[in-house]
Amino acid sequence: MLHDKEIQNWIESHGVATSFTFIVYGDLLQEEVDLLIKGLVIMLEDEIHTKSMAIFFDKISEEEAVAWKVYRGTSLSFVFAGDVIQLEPVIQMVIGDGLEYLRYKSEYISSKRSYSYV
After folding, report:
1. What is the C-alpha separation between 62 and 40, in angstroms, rounded?
2. How many CA atoms lie within 13 A of 35 on its CB side?
3. Is residue 3 helix, strand or coil?
4. Are 81 and 10 in contact (CB under 8 A)?
5. CA distance 80 to 53
6. For residue range 37-92, what is the model confidence (pLDDT) as tens digits?
7. For residue 36, which phi and psi values (nearest 5 degrees)?
8. Side-chain half-sphere of 40: how many Cα atoms within 13 Å?
9. Cα–Cα distance between 25 and 109 in angstroms, integer?
10. Chain Cα centroid distance, residue 90
11. Which of 61, 71, 81, 89 is surrounded by the most beta carbons within 10 Å?
């Protein structure tokens, strides 16, 4: 995910990219992810430039579930250009509430900052 070319460009131009990862215990549909994105964009419109945001959602295989010590489901990550770690509580609340509304059991895993060391 953070090896994506666009994310690498963000890291080079901003010095850092920040990601927030959730585990969803179910198979998210594209429409459901779109709904979560819209809610997050509305909540963050005064805080950051949301055009510098990428979303990745991938199914978690049995092997990945064993390695991560979680159950099968979907990995859902929101990646932002720059250091936006201060938004962690807002992102946790919006996405957590959205997933609960969609009737998914989920867990917030972590935030991570990826820096440019060039």
Report:
1. 30
2. 12
3. coil
4. yes
5. 5
6. 999 999 988 777 666 889 999 999 999 889 988 889 999 999 998 889 999 999 99
7. -65, -40
8. 30
9. 13
10. 12
11. 81
102: alpha, beta or left? (left if phi > 0; alpha if psi -120 to 50):
alpha
User: Domains in the chain, ordered, with CATH?
Assistant: 5-111 (3.30.70.2920)
Total number of residues shown for the chain: 118
Q: Is the pLDDT score of 12 beyond 80?
A: yes
Task: Give the DSSP H or E segment for 63.
Answer: helix 62-68
Q: Do residues 30 and 118 lie in contact, with contact meaning Cβ atoms separated by under 8 Å? A: no
Neighbours of 114 (CB within 10 A): 17
Half-sphere exposure of 104 (CA within 13 A, CB side): 25
